[in-house]
Structures are given as C-alpha cells and as structure tokens.
Amino acid sequence: MELLPRSPAEFGSAHYWDRFFRQRGQRPFEWYGAFPELCPVLYKYVRPRDKVLVVGCGNSELSEQMYDVGMCEDIVNIDISDAVIRQMRERSASTRPKMSYLLMDMLQMDFPDSHFQVVLDKGTLDALLTDEEEATLTKVDQMFAEISRVLQVGGRYLCVSLAQAHVLKKAVEYFSQEGWVVRVHQVASSGDKQQFVLPVFVYVMTKFRKIPGSAAQILEICPEEQDKPMRVESVERLVAAVKDRQHYALLCSQISKTPCREQVSLDLCDKDSGKPRYTLHVVDNPSVKPSRDNHFAIFIIPQGRETEWLFGTEEGRRQLAASAGFGRLVTVALHREQHYEGMASIQAELSGKVMELAPPGLPARQQVPFLSVGGDIGVRAVRHCGSSPLSGDFVVEDVRGDGTCYFRRLIFLQNRNVVQSEARLLAPTPLPGHKKRRKDKKKPSPTEPPGAIDKSYLCCEHHKAMVAGLCLLGGPDALPGDLAVLVVGLGGGSLPLFVHDYFSQARVAVVEIDPSMLEVATCWFSFSQGDRMQVHVSDGLDYVAKLAAEAPAQYDAIMFDVDSKDLTMGMSCPPPAFVEKPFLQKVKTILKPEGVFVLNLVCRDAGLKESVLAALRDVFPLLYARSIQGEVNEILLCQAGPAGRRSPAELGARARALERALRQPGRPWDSSWALAEALQAVHIL
C-alpha cells in the first residue's frame, strides 16, 4: 500500500492526509520518537493546569499519553484531515472527556488571541517546510503568526523536529527576531527502538513581549546528556551545534553496523565551556577474531603523550590496537585546558558515551575495559602561557614521559598536536652531606617534576640527525675545529645549545624572528647568550640576504629549523620562501666552500616537495637525505664544495669518529643515542 506523497506539496493537502489515515486505519502513526523519549522534555514545559493546543495531531498517541499520565488534561487537537479527526474522537470520547479534536487549519485558526499556554507540534513544521520556495515560506510564516497569536505571553511553542538545517534556521530566526527565548533540546534516544538514525530535537520557543529597538537574542541548546542549557551567540552557531550532533548520530549508527575502514576522529566537548575535553579515535583491527573478551576496549592516553608517534599518528594507533589485541580500540586524548580527577572519574564520565561507539556484535552487558600506560592518566603541568603577534598563543608545559622521566615542551596552540621544542628535565640532586631519615621520605609530587634542563639530551630525532650531519665537516678522524654555525629558528634553543656546549670552539649565531621565543628559551629552557652564542632578532630571509651582500663565505654550517605559520600550506617547515632558488643561492653565498647546509624539511605535499628538492639540487650538487622514522621530517644535508660523494658506510664511520671526539671526560653524554645511528638509512639524492 503506497502511503508516501507523490510530491512534497501533498504534505499540506487535506485530501492526501484523508487518504493516508483511511488506508492506515486505526494504527497510530508516530512521526518522531515515542512518548517515553519525549516525556522528560515535555514535563519541563507543560504544567497540569496549562491549556494545550496540538497542531497537526494526526493519529499520534502523544496527546492521549499526556492525558493518561496526568501531565495535562485540557488539550485541544486540530488537524486538516476529517478522517483522522473522526478516528481520534471515537478513540477518546469515553475515556478522555476533557480532551477535544477539531477539524481546523492551523494557518487560519478560530481561537481567540492569547488562548493557550502551550502549542505542541510533533513533525507538523517538518511536513510543511519541505522546501524553501516562496509559497512554502509564506505558509510557514502564516503558521508561525497564528501560533504567536493564540499563545499567551510566557507561553511555550514546543516543536518536535528532526531539525533539518533550513527548518531549524527558519524557526529560530523568526521567533528570535520577535524577541522570544529559543532553546533547543536533543531528545535522548532509546537505543535499538529508535525509529530514526538522526536524533530528534524539541525547539522550545518562549513568548516574550517584543521590546522595540532591542536586537538582543537568547539562544540556547541542551544536549541529551545534560539539563543545563548552553548559551550560543548566533543562529548560525546554534544550527552548527545541532548539525554536529546529527553528524555524531550518523557516525554512531554507521560504525555500530560495520567496521571502520578508516580511523574515525571526534571531539567530546566540556558541557560548561564548550571547549574540547576529549579527542577520540576509533581504530578497528580486522586481524582480530572477535571473542567475548576482545571485542572492544578504551585506551586513555596519558596526559602530555598524545603527540608521541604511537598515540598521535594513524600508523601508531594501528600498532597500538594490534598489540592490545582488541577488535575495536577507542583511544582517548586528554586536553591541556581541562582538569581530570583521575582514571576512575574519566571512566565514569565516558562510559556511557563510548558505548555509543561500540562495534557490531558486542555481547549485551559486556564489560568494556579501560586501558592506559601504567594504569594512570599521566602528568601534565602548564608552566607558562603566552601569546605573540607572530606565533599566536603558546604554552610551556612539563609532562611525564615513559617511565620516570619528565620533559618540558613548547606548544603553539594553533598547531597543538605538534611539539615545537622539547627538553628533558634532570632528576633533583640532594644537597652534599644531606641524608634524609627513612621516616622523612616523601614521594615526589606528581605535579612537581624537576626543573633543571638536561642540556646533554636532544629529544627530537631530527635534531640528532642535524647534529650528526656536522660529521661532513673537518677530517675523517678529527673534530671540526673553529666552527662558525648559523642556526635559523630558535624555539626552545636545544639545538644551538647542544652545538655550543659540545663543539667547544664553535661560534653560534641564531636568528629568530619572534622576540617572545627568545624570552621563552631563556626563562624556561635554560638558554643563554655569551661570547660564542649570539641571538639576532630578525627575519631569517632579511638576515641571510644582508650577509650575502656584505660578508660572504663565513659559515661552516647553516641549519634551518624554522616553522611556517601558514597552516594551509602542505609544508610546515620551513616557510616556502626559505627554499626558493634565489634565496638558496644566498645561503650558498654565505656558506664556506666545503661547508654544509642542514635543512629540516616537513612537507606532506608530494608535488611541492619535489619542487623543493629540484631547487636544492640546482644550488647544491651534493644532497644527502635522512628520513625520520614515524615522522614527516626529512633532514637534508647539502654541500656545494668539491668534497665528493660519501657512501652511507663512510658517513657512519665519520659520525662515530665525531662522537668519540665529542665524548670528553667530565662532559655528560646521553647514551641512548649515537651519531652514527642518527645517520642510518641516509641516502644520496
């Protein structure tokens, strides 16, 4: 039996609805949601003594159920279908004497002004507003005007809707411009019993007297998991907030039925601030044969470790899921602006929400484990927050790494998943001759990591490769002598500090465009200037151009480790202007004939990367490349002199010789890495 209309216009036709209800018979037709789902919202806005008007009632049981549970009895139902009005009168005549059914067009109602405290609409607006044609919008304006007329001041228009963007926008704009308070509730779903994949919403429009000349709007949204409304500043933001919830519902529906071919990412926001509180990645592992105990797990990433390869990359998360041995793993990253009590509170907060992301076939009442590293949520302490016109907002934070080590990090918040600079912190050293009695021993506070910077340790793999590239200088068995080194890009200062401290005769010049970074490096990363270390606050492009014109061939090594502020480019390091051929010619000009130009290249755009390499080859005939495993970084070692090509084996030998020269008695050396290893897999381009 065909009940669907031949065109959207038929939704407004009395003839269509007469035919619909005659063919459907006595079976109730519920547009969206059943009474149990709508009841919590209705109870907030319908009082027992209210006079309620239901527009476009159809043969829904909603009015009957409201009456039967005592929510309200003075209910008037109207519809344009004579057939359905007769059905409903017969159904309620003997059992609900105070409820009435009238044949009436809601566009032209016979009721006096200010007659009702509540107007209830379940799907009627959606049925009328099927398009945005002028004739349709005129009808909708008539509907809204009539609802406004029959409602008392302080009365509520409750509209149950799927909240298509054009429907929501039209309703909110109309009533907010009339000075009404607009609040949108998301209706809690009933799991498998829900008829629609998309969530159901209730618009609550509360009538106030319009104040002439006032443009103030009160717009709010109440997500299903909370009672407290969230204020939004514009109609567009309200529509966007609803759309986010619709997308989430579609996502949950999709991944509950089929495995994810690609990793799915979503943010869960704080209910008070609206800012992201958790970032979730859904990772499916098709190699796992599901059993009762390995269907699904949640992995809480320790604070501060979300940028590590294992947690911060798709491949790393795939490896994590495989090692965990679950068919679906949801990783959860914690945001630095938020406060977390501990694993138990996070589990309580997330347990309901993550179950919406459960895989197909999860047994009923299955216990889902929460996993982490070491069983806790890690440690993150924000030491400094700042802002710069050039770098934007940034933070300096201390985090606990794997084991007992602490690290200090500089993060630019416009690219919060990338560690800009990192340094290891030294363990505290007891005072000479001071011994604590056993009973005085205290566990170190997890929020008070040690503060001294370990200058012997290079945290970044690309920095290790850049330092190892200096083995191209000097003889095969000797430490390069009186080196002149130019570093463009300061960050926390780890790279120039290491060169300064371990190449005891090196003179290091650093160019940094942002004076705020010099202050951060000095105050928080133990960077200092001296006779052999000078910082020039300048644009690297201008500084190199000026040197090329005034003082050519003065540097043994030039290192570029400078980020791009333009996140729309496929290359985040360096800015494109630093690798254009005319500028590279200037770099070559200030480099000594047998010097080395070391470039940290981070480029995801294959075409752009090839053009960069082509420009480098045109200027520097000898080009070595070292890719950093698990990262996009690639270190390029460029030479223009007659030194000749060196095989990877020869480079390894030179790196080992350089390391022997750098390891001096009394000078700390981090034994976890070797210069030769930093040049592993280097190849000639």
UniProtKB/TrEMBL annotation:
Domain Methyltransferase: 50-172
Basic residues: compositionally biased ranges: 433-444
One term of GO molecular function: methyltransferase activity
Keyword Transferase assigned: yes
Keyword Transferase among record annotations: yes
SUPFAM superfamilies attached to this UniProt entry: S-adenosyl-L-methionine-dependent methyltransferases
Keywords, in A-Z order: Methyltransferase, Multifunctional enzyme, Transferase
Family matches, as CDD domains: AdoMet_MTases
Pfam family, one: Spermine_synth
GO biological process, one term: methylation
Similarity annotation: Belongs to the methyltransferase superfamily.
PANTHER family: EEF1A LYSINE AND N-TERMINAL METHYLTRANSFERASE, SAM-DEPENDENT METHYLTRANSFERASE SUPERFAMILY PROTEIN
Descriptive protein name: eEF1A lysine and N-terminal methyltransferase
Organism: Tychaedon coryphoeus
Gene field: Mettl13
